[in-house]
Amino acid sequence: MKSYIAAAIQMTSVPDLQKNLSQAEELIDLAVRQGAELVGLPENFSFMGEEKDKLAQAEVISQETEKFLIQMAQRFQVTILGGGFPVPVSGTAKVHNTALFVDVNGQKLSRYQKVHLFDVNVPDGNTYQESSTVVAGQNLPPVYRSETLGNIGFSICYDVRFPELYRHLAENGTDIIFVPAAFTAFTGKDHWQVLLQARAIENTCYVIAPAQTGTNYNRRQTHGHAMIIDPWGTILADAGDQPGVAIAEIKPTRLEQVRRQMPSLKHRVF
Q1: Per-residue pLDDT at 263
Q2: Per-position DSSP letters for 207-268, written without gaps between them
Q3: Residues 140-144: contacts with CB within 8 Å, 24+ apart?
Q4: pLDDT at site 125
Q5: What is the reported pLDDT for 123?
Q6: Active-site entry in 37, 66, 157, 205
Q7: What residue ranges of the chain have pLDDT lower than 50?
Q8: Residue 157 among the catalytic residues
């Protein structure tokens, strides 16, 4: 593993596939011009709208999104995580919320289907029922092992509230954890940052958390604050509340230092 620049992209995705892909391309270009070699896009980056509209367009969204990720990785010579988009599930009228990891050659390296679905009545009056359109993944997230970028683990949004998923990643040697999200504005203001820092600290890993921000459609408002956090829990970059990019350096020497100073993973009893 070498030192390199990573980017967590922040978008305001809307119910318009082509508009979202254009916005994503601009932000990938911005990240690469700042030296990024590893780029993460947020959950729902290619489409964020009503559930019925997502289902109606799922086949097109899935195909166009995969094609887009391959093209962007090849064009910009960057490794990209597409942090969550609908992929139709055969034999059902539902989709998997899927993250796809693609290398500079356009090769699909790894895929993760979101396990924890957001079925919550939020105190701001909004109700979310992700399971009404999404089939939960059945497998723990994979760890992709790269000699240059480190061992990279995956998760999506609501997963961040379930520490056992991240302990699985840590036990499998993860150095960098992706948490692409579309966190609600209401829960995000209290929980987003502290949950990300906790996952970084307890697993002594870097966390790269791309995010949605602003008003995406109707009453759906997302929190923003795409972040990159180091293994000590220090926030290295925060994109604020506007579309943009959080950029920071990933350093193997920092990983080694923190794991040497705080070897908590070696001290576990249970």
Answers
A1: 95
A2: EEE-EEEEEEETTEEEE---EEE-TTS-EEEE-TTSSEEEEEEE-HHHHHHHHHH--GGGG-
A3: 140/115, 140/165, 140/168, 141/112, 141/115, 141/165, 141/168, 141/169, 142/110, 142/111, 142/112, 143/169, 143/172, 143/173, 143/174, 144/101, 144/109, 144/110
A4: 75
A5: 83
A6: 157
A7: none
A8: yes
Cβ-count burial of 29 within 10 angstroms (0-12 exposed, 13-18 middle, 19+ buried)?
middle
C-alpha angle 132/135/140, rounded to 5°?
140
43 is catalytic: yes
Q: Which of 65, 67, 78 is nearest to 104 (CA)?
A: 78
In this prediction, residue 24 carries a pLDDT of: 98
Q: Taking a C-beta distance cutoff of 8 angstroms, is the pair 212, 10 a contact? A: yes
**Active-site residue among 43, 54, 66, 205?**
43
Task: Summarize the chain as % helix, strand, coil (round to 5).
Answer: 35, 30, 35
Q: Could you read off the pLDDT of 184-201 as tens digits, one per residue?
A: 999 999 999 999 999 999
pLDDT at 127: 84
Please report the pLDDT score of residue 126 as a whole number. 80
Q: Which of 54, 66, 114, 205 is catalytic?
A: 114
Helix (H, G, I), strand (E, B) or coil at 84: strand
CA distance 164 to 174: 14
Q: How far is CA 153 from CA 58, 170, 214, in A?
A: 26, 8, 27
pTM above 0.90, yes or no: yes
Give the pLDDT confidence score for residue 11 in this predicted structure.
98
Read out DSSP for 97-121?
Answer: EEEEEE-TTS-EEEEEE--S--EEE
Q: What is the C-alpha to C-alpha distance for residues 30 and 120, in angstroms, rounded to an integer?
A: 35
Dihedral pair phi/psi, residue 62, rounded to 5°: -60, -50
